[in-house]
Amino acid sequence: MADAPREPDAAAAAAETSSAVLEPPVPAPAEVRGLLPALIVAQIALHAEMAGQRMAAPLQALHDGYSAWSVGVLLALFAALPVVAALPAGRLADRHGYHRPLYLGVLFTTLGAACALLACWLPPGWRLALQCVGAGASGVGANIGLIAVLRTAGRRAGSGTERLRVFSWIGMAPSAANVVGPVLAGFMIDGAGYAAAYAALGLLPVLSLLVGGRVPAEAMPAHPPAVTRGQAWTLLHTPGFKRLLFVNWLLSASWDVHSFAVPVLGHARGYNASTIGLVLGTFTAAVTLVRFAVPLLAHRLQEVTVLRVAMLMTALVFAVYPLAATPWLMGGCAALLGLALGAVQPMVMSTLHHLTPEHRHGEAIAFRSMTINLSSSIMPLAFGAAGTALGPGVLFWMMGAAVGAGSWAAAGLRAVRQRH
User: Fold this and answer.
1) What average pLDDT does the segment 380-399 reach?
2) Which of 149, 409, 150 has the alpha carbon at shortest distance from 304?
3) Strand (E) positions, 98-245?
4) Cα-atom radius of gyration of the chain, to the nearest Å?
5) What CA–CA distance (Å, rounded) separates 337 from 238?
6) How far apart, in whole angstroms, are the C-alpha atoms of residue 96 and residue 420?
7) Of 47, 73, 95, 350, which one has the greatest count of Cβ atoms within 10 A?
8) Integer angstrom CA distances of residue 340 from 65, 255, 377, 396
9) Strand, coil or helix: what is 67?
10) Residue 356 gets which letter from DSSP?
11) d(CA 255, CA 395)
12) In angstroms, how far is CA 312 from the centroid of its own chain?
């Protein structure tokens, strides 16, 4: 007698259902590319508000007669407070997807612009305090939006190659925002004053809301795994994750060293401001060029190989940079460095999504954001002390030696990635 058909096991059915919710169908590459404009515009809008305010607020503080130290504190708040808010923002994105963090990012960046606007009508003695509140709010809002955008982009990409393409395109958003925000603020300040500049900057985040509807809501688990504050740090025990953060920090610090040391080195050699600006502009142009190239070459690139080559190339460029005796040679070094560092962000983000658990991608991106923002808050002080004591040339050599020695960490990522 044949066995009667058995009912499917309830636990297996529940697990299958949960898995289906946790892992929504992978969209086709065309669908991912359709989302890219909305994600890029959202990040540009939020980041441009912060970048414009980061340029305008220190100028206003200097105009009011505040010291350089006070302006330094104001600038530090744009990066320091996002360090504190990054992990909660990452957990929020993991639990609720893209739209709720986006709305929160819009709220904070708009609040930051509103604080700066209201400060214009306060006496100068009180103005800086409200400007500091606005700086912190704008920095937090832009960072929340960045975490949401990067997490969504990585999860919607269907393969490692597609992730490289997506992160390379999105990597251009901060560069565009760093042009849009300060240029808008500058023209508004010259034409109508600081209050008008902050009002115009406060309208930029609205663009994020207008394009937010083009990003479909993500299918989230009905009962997502709860991660407490203490448990969040267990993510650092993921094989290869600390190694990746270390590599990312070294290369991010290299970017900061270049931005700091080139003006100091150029000034010491008697170059005018336009010459120094052209050297820095050459670096930015090379970064943009390589991020246009990565999507075309993504199918041929290996993330770990590119990271290691970028580190060795950075170390080599830093070794010869102080020896570049003319602006043309400095521009050549800047171009080579831009090609190396410009390729890093897509590789780091693709590797990060590969190494970390899918339901904790937001937290993983938050850890990366914390290391970058903390470095941007602290390292300029170290650069200033080292540059004053040793000179900008020695600063290049020290950073180059650190990056070259740290390339072993990138090499070790290959074995970790192959085990996943």
Assistant:
1) 72
2) 409
3) none
4) 23
5) 31
6) 26
7) 47
8) 40, 10, 23, 16
9) coil
10) S
11) 13
12) 22
